[in-house]
Design a protein that fits this description.
Isoleucyl-tRNA Synthetase, domain 2; RNA-binding; single chain; alpha/beta; globular; ten-stranded mixed beta sheet
RNA sequence: GCGAGGGUAGCCAAGUCUGGUCAAAGGCGUAGGACUCAAGAUCCUAUCCCUAGCGGUUCGGGCGUUCGAAUCGCCCCCCUCGCACCA
């Protein structure tokens, strides 16, 4: 249908104005009148409104049973550095939503608190005390803190307070500057004694439900400091993982009673393909006694095992050479295999004993071939040549399209010697991946035959461990791992570690069920959550270092780790105002049982604790009113821990309906293409952003650049551009207010209609947290429509005021300060922050008016195109609208299309029946052909539009003055079949319905 | 490897679920013009190729389904993030 009316606006509905303009948008002569315009001064406006909000307590929230509540919380910040624009994005999202909900009439609570527990703050103060120059230089040079000042911040609380309140780059400073509608009356921290009381209740309750247990756990550990270390404490080896190896115990045949060779492997399922054991002939080994057994391990392995909770004594020292040529028994298969020498064996890695599976491990294959070729070595170690040559790979895993995988890979890579370690490492990786993902256990693996390798691995391991044929050993995934003190770290097994039992199947199931009821933004995150719940294991929830709540029943100094103490703090916000007035030490578990669960009798609890029953009832009321949270706002990266933990804990501690109703998962932030990082100084502080752009522009830009869940990239040029956008808007608003003329125009109903569409779209978008889409309509598209309205000659002062009135209310959640300012100019009552969010009035939708403007816009486009191509500066423009008979054919074709039977023959027949059409039979065929080709391609919406009672000639005639003004030439409108038309180039014949012919001269 | 999310014109990004209104919104950048003594700002226009408004070639790559695909299916390539005791 492109030939009839090429539509340029999609659902969003945008008019793309094309022509060269001869008049300014807001012509000074008619609109501006030298009105005294206020320049946009964000600093002044923002201070003014922030002060007024504070003065009136605009955002403090009290329970009000008469109003529907809305409770939104956001991950509390960890104040150990400046608040940057990445944080600003995180906190602006809930603020926008809170402001929107408030305007929708909700009693809205948006609280804030500070996470002080954990190690970074202690770490930072420690570094200040240690005069760590690298860190001090960041404080001094990046964050502009004087030496005098930072040297006073050696206590965690001083340090935190600085980054919350005192620094101009601090969090509360920044949040205030950005105009967040936070109820500061509920400010709290994770170190408040009252908070600790709640956490104590939380952990005792979890424990009583059997969800907290003790067990052993591997951690990075510095033997010199005798302390567990975090990545923060490391000089080398940041991010290095701890891998769990299975030690398969091979029993030495003959002599020495029972001596086991524990070979470490990540692939216990390959035990069926074992052909021999490797020892390094020249490395030092020791015989140790542990758990009533004797083991042969490398000398380096003994202390490692000792750290991993193995009581052991060294019986004697030896070398690998001593055991070469002897034989061991293989568990599960009971085969007898020889011990052979190999130089690739690393004595400082795991146990220093290696099981050889040449069919599936490239190192083993190559080492075996090396040895088989090496007569001298055979001689030297006194190996039986014929037996050695009889050793060949035993394939016990089948992979489609492969033989023994290691054999294939070594062949492909052309590896010749075990000294080619880089290529062997690579081949090993490939073998592991290939077999793990696609391998199946071969028939020679007994009852594991046919199992996928990924499943068999776990099963074989479990079987070996259960029958005492194997043990476990941990090793770093990479070395070295070095403590700040310079000592090499080890893996230590902590044996009295406390865990939260996230592996509990029933608990998991409850979480999975709850997940289906939670509104997730974006919805795609649901599968991610499901997977996390699936593989989540028991979580070590206690630590020895850092700040935090003491594990309530423990005397040994465990504190609750910081991801585990912050799972239900949203409930704490509801209690703060009342609880803060009570002495913390009186907050017994009975208090929380009553407040959270409604258990017990307030009078008797009051009697036991010495608290007022009224205070207890008050807290219960607050909690019951606000909970559950409507939305939790946090970052994508917290899905694998914090957010999922939160669901687990809510389900375990509270009745099911108190689980969060929705979770919003934010994307991460990038600064000019680089990942933001406070420690590397890749940050743009909120303080600077507000200073340079103002709070509103910062918010506008943050909310417009992408939807909340997408990763965003802060770019200075873009922020600059948004500053100009704000200035333009502020000026435009004043111009709209200063408008003098008041007259009704045909375009009025168009602008009304467009406004309704934007109001509708913006509201829908905000319900789904689509801040970008909402702004697209509330700011940019509406602005475009107002421009078009003025360009079309619209001058209705009352209408423009009404539009502006709705406009600032649409924008108030995003740019609250400037919206208040304009609201005040409009004479609005109270704060715009409390004004109702615009509701769409569908009665004001006017599809015909919209279609008319769309038609004109397209016409403008066509004319502009012709001018561009021909470079004609037109003095005269003649438009010919399609003749009646074509319209009649068009209508018939449309009717047939709606009936689903538009065919050439039918259309021709029908058309020729009409005596008004019949005379044009020659042109008819070609026109009908085009209709038959184009109309079926139209969508429902498009068909509906074309069916509107549109008067083409009247529209064109009415737009004559407009077109004349646009192109600075005289404009004539004719019907294409008017006998007296001016048509020197015979253009009129080209006119078709909705697409007039054009002649320029 | 496992898991999740992506690849759209110079950049950001909408559109993909619900195939046709998509040469593909909007913003930015760039260019031209209007306004101005001038600069900035503002406003208008242009920004894949071609062209009296026609048409042509596009939406990571390939194949396919369909009258019709940025949108559906299959295969492949590439990017980002998470994988645990760390906030």
């Amino acid at each position: 249908m492109a030939g009839l009316c090429c539509n340029r606006w999609g659902e969003i509905g945008v008019i793309v104005p094309r022509p060269t303009n001869r008049q300014a948008l807001y012509p000074r002569s008619t609109i501006l009148r030298r009105t005294v315009m206020k320049a946009y001064d964000p600093g002044e406006i923002e201070r003014k409104w922030q002060a007024r909000w504070t003065e009136r307590g605009a955002f403090s929230a009290r329970p009000d049973p008469g109003r529907e509540r809305y409770f939104v919380t956001v991950a509390w910040p960890y104040p150990s550095g400046p608040m940057h624009v990445g944080h600003a994005r995180t906190y602006t999202v809930p603020d926008v939503i809170a402001r929107y909900k408030r305007m929708k009439g909700h009693n809205c609570l948006f609280p804030m608190g500070w996470h002080l527990t954990g190690s970074p703050i202690v770490g930072a103060t420690q570094r200040i005390r240690d005069r760590d120059e690298r860190y001090l230089s960041i404080l001094r040079d990046k964050y502009g803190i004087s030496e005098d000042l930072y040297l006073t911040m050696t206590e965690p609380m001083q340090f935190a307070d600085y980054w919350i309140n005192r620094s101009r780059m601090g969090y509360k400073t920044g949040m205030t500057a950005l105009g967040y509608s936070i109820d500061w009356g509920r400010e709290c921290t994770s170190l408040d004694p009252h908070f600790s009381k709640m956490v104590g209740w939380q952990y005792r309750t979890l424990r009583s439900k059997g969800l907290v247990t003790t067990g052993s756990h591997p951690v990075k550990f510095c033997p010199r400091d005798n302390q567990a270390v975090t990545d923060h404490d490391l000089l080398d080896g940041e991010g290095v993982g701890i891998m769990e190896f299975t030690l398969i115990k091979y029993r030495l045949e003959g002599g020495e009673g029972a001596l086991f060779l524990p070979a470490a492997t990540l692939r216990p399922e390959t035990v069926f393909g074992l052909t021999n054991i490797w020892l390094h002939p020249d490395a030092a080994y020791v015989v140790i006694e542990t758990g009533g057994e004797r083991w042969l391990v490398s000398r380096e392995a003994a202390p490692k095992l000792a750290h991993q909770d193995k009581a052991l004594t060294v019986v004697r020292e030896t070398t690998g050479r001593e055991f070469i040529g002897r034989r061991v028994r293989v568990p599960l298969t009971d085969a007898s295999v020889p011990i052979l020498p190999a130089t690739f064996v690393k004595p400082d890695h795991t146990s220093g004993v290696v099981g050889s599976v040449p069919a599936h491990a490239p190192f083993d294959l190559v080492a075996l071939r090396d040895l088989q070729r090496d007569g001298a070595a055979q001689e030297a170690f006194g190996l039986d040549r014929s037996e050695l040559s009889s050793l060949s790979p035993i394939q016990m895993i089948a992979v489609d399209g492969h033989g023994a995988v290691a054999v294939d890979l070594v062949e492909e890579a052309g590896i010749r010697s075990q000294a080619e370690t880089a290529r062997l490492d690579d081949a090993t990786n490939q073998a592991y991946k290939l077999e793990f993902s696609r391998g199946v256990m071969a028939p020679n693996t007994g009852r594991w035959s046919g199992l996928r390798v990924s499943a068999a691995k776990e099963q074989v391991k479990r079987e070996l461990l259960a029958s005492g044929l194997a043990d476990t050993m941990y090793e770093f995934s990479e070395t070295p791992v070095t403590c700040r003190c310079g000592a090499p770290c080890v893996v230590k097994t902590v044996t009295d570690q406390w865990f939260i039992r996230y592996s509990d199947p029933e608990w998991k199931q409850e979480v999975l069920d709850a997940l289906e009821r939670i509104q997730l933004v974006p919805p795609e995150s649901r599968t991610y959550y499901r997977n996390v719940v699936d593989w989540l294991n028991d979580w070590p929830c206690t630590r020895r270092v850092g700040l935090g709540t003491r594990l309530p029943w423990d005397e040994t100094g465990w504190i609750i780790e910081s991801l585990s103490d912050s799972t239900i703090y949203m409930a704490y916000y509801t209690l703060v105002p009342l609880m803060r007035r009570l002495p913390a030490e009186r907050l017994s578990d009975a208090v929380f049982d009553f407040v959270f669960l409604g258990r017990g009798d307030p009078a008797s609890i009051a009697a036991q604790t010495g608290l007022e029953a009224e205070a207890l009832r008050g807290m219960r009321t607050e909690f019951a009113y606000w909970y559950p949270q409507n939305h939790r706002v946090s970052a994508n990266e917290l899905i694998p821990n914090h957010l999922t933990f939160m669901i687990f804990h809510h389900l375990a501690l509270f009745p099911r309906p108190l689980c969060p109703e929705g979770i919003v998962n934010l994307g991460l932030g990038v600064l000019e293409g680089r990942r933001m990082s406070s420690s590397k100084g890749v940050v743009f502080a909120v303080a600077e952003a507000v200073e340079r752009f103002g709070a509103d522009v910062t918010r506008l830009y943050l909310m417009y650049m992408c939807e909340p869940w997408q990763d965003f990239d802060w770019r200075g040029v873009q922020a600059d551009a948004h500053r100009r956008q704000m200035e333009r808007f502020f000026a435009a608003a004043q111009e709209m207010l200063a408008m003098e003329a008041t007259s009704e125009q045909p375009v009025d109903s168009w602008l009304e209609s467009r406004l309704q569409r934007h109001v509708l779209a913006a509201g829908q978008a905000l319900e789904g947290f689509q801040t970008r889409r909402a702004l697209q309509h509330s700011f940019f598209l509406l602005q475009q429509d107002v421009r078009w309205y003025l360009r079309r000659g619209g001058r209705n002062r009352d209408l423009l005021r009404r539009v502006l009135d709705a406009w600032v209310r649409l924008l108030a959640p995003f740019v609250p300060h400037v919206s208040e300012e304009i609201w005040e100019m409009l004479g609005g009552k109270g704060f715009v922050s409390d004004a109702p969010f615009p509701a769409p009035d569908e009665g004001r939708l006017d599809p015909l008016a919209e279609f008319r403007e769309e038609y004109l816009s397209n016409l403008l486009g066509d004319i502009a195109e012709i001018i561009k191509v021909t470079k004609i500066g037109p003095r005269r423009m003649v438009l010919y609208c399609a003749p009646q008979w074509k319209w009649e054919v068009f209508r018939r074709a449309m009717a047939m299309a709606r009936g689903g039977h538009l065919y050439m023959s039918g259309l021709m027949k029908s058309a020729l029946e009409d005596p008004a059409i019949a005379p044009h039979s020659r042109e008819l065929a070609r026109f009908a052909q085009k209709l038959v080709a184009d109309i079926p391609k139209l969508s429902e919406d498009q068909l509906a539009k074309y069916a509107l009672p549109f008067e083409e000639h009247a529209t064109l005639a009415g737009a004559g003055a407009f077109l004349s003004g646009e192109f600075g030439c005289e404009v004539e409108v004719h019907r294409a079949d008017a006998p007296d038309r001016y048509d020197p180039q015979e253009k009129a014949g080209k006119a078709v319905p909705l697409r007039p012919a054009i002649f320029l001269e």
